[in-house]
Structures are given as C-alpha cells and as structure tokens.
Amino acid sequence: SRINPGVIVCAMRGYGAAGPYGSEPAYDDVIQAASGLAANQTGTGEPQFVRTPISDKVTGMLAMGAICAALFERAASGRGQAVEVPMFETMVQFLLVEQQGGYVFDPPRGEAGYARTNSPFRRPHRTRDGLVSVLPYTDAHWRALFEAFGADDRASDPRFATIVGRSRHIDELYEWLDTELAARSTADAVDLFRGANVPIMPVNTIPDLFDDPHLAAVDFFRRHEHPRLGTLRQPRCPVGFSRSGAAPYAPAPLLDGDGERLRAELDGRSEVPQAGER
C-alpha cells in the first residue's frame, strides 16, 4: 500500500486472524464440522458432511462480493484496503440465517433450529417409479395441494391452515405427502403439482443433468477443443448480463501456456503474443 495506496488485497483464511483459531490450518471438511453444518445435517444422528466442498464455494462467492464492495468504495475514496473473508465465520453466519431459532434472543427463548428444514421427513418423496422433490410453502400452495388431493378438510384444520400451525406439525404433513405420492407415478405427480402451481421437480442424478431439457435450451454446457485432451464439456457461468455479455470460454491453459504473453506484458514489449501463440 505504500507503493500503491489504491491496492486491494483479499485474504480468504480458515479463521479470522484476530481470534484464537487464527493460525489454525483449515480445509472444507474441518470448517463444515466447526461451523455446526455437519451436525445440523442429521440433527440427533451422526454428523455428516455435505457432499460438495460447500465451505470453499460459499467463501469464494462471499469474497467476490466483498472485493466488488471494496472496488466500489475505492471509486469514491481513491483508497484501497485489506479485505478478510474467513471460512469459519462465513459458514457460521451462513448456517444461522435460518437455524438460530430461539437463540436469536439472549438468553434463549426456545430451541435452535428451523422446523421445516430439520424435519426427518424433509427428503425426496418416492413415487411408484422414481423420486420427486416438492415444496408447498405458502398458504396458497397448501390449499391448492389439499384440493388437488381431495383433502379439503385439511385446509380448514387449524394445524395446517397457517404457516405457524404447519411449522408445528410439519412432520405430519410431510409424512402424509409421502403416502399420497407413493401411489402415483412421477409423471402424474409432476402434472398434478404443476397444475396446482406448487413447486415440484423430479430428482436428478448428476448424469441426468447432461440430458436435462432446460439446460440444453439455455446452452448451459459448452464444448471446447483441448489441444491434448480432445473435446471437453463444461458448465458455463450461470450469470447473464443484458449489455456486457458473457466471459469468453476456453479450456484451462497448459503449463506456461500464457507465459510468453505475460512475460511480454511485464517486460513492456509493444507486441504481445496472444494466448497459444509462440
């Protein structure tokens, strides 16, 4: 910063430097455990890790926003700054958004947790020939669903008529959905729920995604010719911009693939070779 007062440096650390964990090493699994995420996955059961490095990914996305905020502030002040994005604190905040429950008060006025997401019956529902995920959430969703299933008496039941009542009896509702959906095919369930304007989707495996009609329609997977490995298929960035367009797509460069270009830039040469040129 003495050389360039406008420089912005972002440190993505395991833990905030000011705390006693500041010098501890960290990887995604360690942060999932420390933040409460692994234990929250199963409630009273054995803790489990989310099967994707979610701490790494969420911290990276928060860091992107933090860097953009620092750039925006620098446009007004002309000064850079150090930005710290610690994984542990990031994932604790990420989890507690909805899981703090009664612990939002000091002293606590109830248990921690969010009844709907923590229900043991919150899981994909099995149909006659597959699995679906459904989420009736609003009063309108549940009324439409009760009507579609011919269960109008439930719509007027005080236990299920409001979100407060449903939250208290969510296990009973999800268990009822299990029974209703088990008697229907996936296609019939999807038609029924979409007709009632209730969110539903079949459960996809990872291979299913490459044949998904929506992803095909939005040109989500891009193919590239790699100089050594042949044709590669990769997901594009999901963000769209109305004016500035999308970032260019290309395979990751080979070792030293951009070296000549970068060395030319650092040397201040006027003619800079493009990537792949020698």
Report on this model:
The protein has helices spanning 28-34, 37-42, 54-77, 87-99, 115-118, 139-148, 152-155, 163-168, 170-182, 186-195, 206-209, 213-217, 259-267; strands at 9-11, 82-84, 125-126, 131-134, 200-202, 221-226, 230-235. With 278 residues, it is mainly alpha-helical. The strands form three sheets. The chain has a three-stranded antiparallel sheet, covered by helices on one side. Helix 3 (54-77) crosses helix 4. It is globular.
- In terms of DSSP E residues, the strand content is 5-15%
Query: Structural class, from secondary structure content?
Result: mainly alpha
Largest sheet: 3 strands, antiparallel
Give the overall silhouette. Answer: globular
Q: Treating each run of at least 4 consecutive H or I residues as one helix, how many helices? A: 13
* Strand segment count: 7
The whole-number mean of residue pLDDT values reads: 92
The low-confidence runs, each spanning 5 or more residues with pLDDT under 50, are: none
Strand order of the largest sheet: 3-4-5
Helix percent band: 40-55%
Pattern of helices and strands: EHHHEHHEEHHHHHEHHEEH
Gyration radius (Cα, Å) is: 25 Å
Head-to-tail CA distance between termini: 35 Å
